[in-house]
From TrEMBL:
One of its GO terms (cellular component) is ESC/E(Z) complex. Residues 1-72 are annotated as: Disordered. PROSITE patterns: WD_REPEATS_1, WD_REPEATS_2, WD_REPEATS_REGION. It comes from Physeter macrocephalus. Pfam families: WD40. This is Polycomb protein EED.
Length: 377
């Protein structure tokens, strides 16, 4: 894992010499982006939807599903615009698969983000780990999802494995992504088995397990910590996608998920009027609220991201284009999109991340490059 510090010096200001690489907003700090060449970094306001073959997200009257509106979120003029101000390349020259800003820094602290490349790894599962997520309210609780078909919840303060989610009714193939809801009470996971599964961690059983993980002290007992084994999810569906589901995020009580189908789907378990906290494991219905369509993104392990306040959604495609949607609309079908391009960025963008104040958008690519886009006010 590599850490980067982001400088906010205004363009045209000489940056101090430093051994530590910085992704600066000084256009002169990178000759490839200086002068007239930087004029090719543009925001394109897109108003068209990509034609796609029939998938579960646009096939009418699919069994067990209720559509909301027309099912497409048309892209119109977006109020957000960005300018590419810098880029750099990791020295290992390997694909970069992940990036995340530190949203817990205080005002006045340097903006710091971390990248993950193919030569970095963690040990903890029986196979490769595909995503890590910290609990939104308890930073000691770390969720990991793995190629071994399971999710694991860790207490990093006491170094204990709180629970394993998988088994009898768990994922049947690699788990590729997972996300906590805003309150940290629910987890939604997805994977290569085309399924999305809901796991509640606010049950009495799980709350007791988390409490016991804090009380556990290996220096005071010879017994190992007993991890919970959760075999049955609280909801499961395969009706949203027909291929690997490689990214999932909560949007309030709604779910955003994507596959290799050139669309991010917004949906919810059950019917539109159902309370998600009362959804039963036997529920078979899902409600599709809409889609964010894009193009040239039919390979898997391409992650989208939202800003801290969930007002913007960003995704890169396999030819170096960035799509940014405005989520701050009353009617989801009127979500607006801006397409960001730079003539030197042509590799697949694997993941994006916003700074906490949404002023900076970082994208990482298959060619080990990191791209910084600053929001124009």
């Amino acid at each position: 894992m590599s850490e980067r510090e982001v400088s906010t010096a205004p363009a045209g200001t000489d940056m101090p010499a430093a051994k530590k690489q910085k992704l600066s907003s000084d256009e002169n700090s990178n000759p490839d982006l200086s002068g007239d060449e930087n004029d090719d970094a543009v925001s394109i306001e897109s108003g068209t939807n990509t034609e796609r073959p029939d998938t579960p997200t646009n096939t009418p009257n699919a069994p067990g599903r209720k559509s909301w509106g027309k099912g497409k979120w048309k892209s119109k003029k977006c109020k957000y615009s960005f300018k590419c101000v810098n880029s750099l390349k990791e020295d290992h020259n390997q694909p970069l698969f992940g990036v995340q800003f530190n949203w817990h820094s205080k005002e006045g602290d340097p903006l710091v983000f971390a990248t993950v490349g193919s030569n970095r790894h963690y040990v903890g599962h029986g196979n490769a780990i595909n995503e890590l997520k910290f609990h939104p309210r308890d930073p000691n609780l770390l969720l990991s999802v793995s190629k071994d078909h399971a999710l694991r919840l860790w207490n990093i303060q006491t170094d204990t494995l709180v629970a394993i989610f998988g088994g009898v009714e768990g994922h049947r193939d690699e788990v590729l992504s997972a996300d906590y809801d805003l309150l940290g009470e629910k987890i939604m996971s997805c994977g290569m088995d085309h399924s999305l599964k809901l796991w509640r961690i606010n049950s009495k059983r799980m709350m007791n397990a988390i409490k016991e993980s804090y009380d556990y002290n290996p220096n005071k007992t010879n017994r190992p910590f007993i991890s919970q084994k959760i075999h049955f999810p609280d909801f499961s569906t395969r009706d949203i996608h027909r291929n690997y589901v490689d990214c999932v995020r909560w949007l309030g009580d709604l779910i955003l998920s994507k596959s290799c189908e050139n669309a991010i789907v917004c949906w919810k378990p059950g019917k539109m009027e159902d309370d998600i906290d009362k959804i039963k494991p036997s529920e078979s219905n899902v409600t599709i609220l809409g889609r964010f369509d894009y193009s040239q993104c039919d390979i898997w392990y391409m992650r989208f991201s939202m800003d801290f306040w969930q007002k913007m959604l960003a995704l890169g495609n396999q030819v170096g284009k960035l799509y940014v949607w405005d989520l701050e609309v009353e009617d989801p079908h009127k979500a607006k999109c801006t397409t960001l391009t730079h003539h030197k960025c042509g590799a697949a963008i694997r993941q994006t991340s916003f700074s906490r104040d949404s002023s900076i958008l970082i994208a990482v690519c298959d060619d080990a490059s990191i791209w910084r886009w600053d929001r124009l006010r």
